[in-house]
What we know:
The chain is an alpha+beta fold. The chain has two domains: 1-50 and 59-96, no CATH class; 130-177, no CATH class. It has helices at residues 11-22, 60-81, 85-93, 99-122, 154-167; strands at residues 32-35, 39-42, 130-136, 139-144, 176-177. The longest helix is centred in the middle third of the chain and has 24 residues, at 99-122. Residues 46-97 are annotated as: Disordered. Residues 1-44 bind DNA. Residues 1-44 form the OmpR/PhoB-type domain. Keywords: DNA-binding, Membrane, Transmembrane, Transmembrane helix.
Amino acid sequence: EQGFEVDDSSLTQAISTLRKQLQDSTKSPQYVKTVPKRGYQLICNVERTTPLMSGETPSKEDVSEESEEQLTELTTESQSSELTPDEKAAHSATAPTTGKSKWVTRIMLLLAILMPLCVILFTNPAESKFRQVAVYDGTPVMTPVNHPDLSKWYPSIEQCVKRYNAAHSTVAPVEVIATGGQN
């Protein structure tokens, strides 16, 4: 279960150690075959075994899922065993993520979705405070407290309020909020 990393310089030594532990000869190999000018090839059948937890029996669903996983792993291992050392290094760099990193990725994705939602749902915008600057035709005209002076706009605002009230006599505005532009 410990395993070790192999680079180009120690690949031959690693294969030799593997052969010794598997008691595999170089003359008639049963597990690892040397492919001249290409690298090494795994020539044995590989099966994955998973121990059952405290007397549990696998359901048919679990068995079929494990069979599919084993088939995928066998295909992947047989493909990677035919690669040269350089190809193996490139292939291992794009290897699938482990179970732990899958959970980390899922949690990060969930947080990335939840954080903006929390900001939107649980924060209230600051309420503006207004001051009344005039009353035209019974309609108060308000402006934000921190807003610059609008006194030169009063005649235009008065005209707008009166025309609106004349055109919409049944629906008079409760208040008018006036803000000034740059000019």
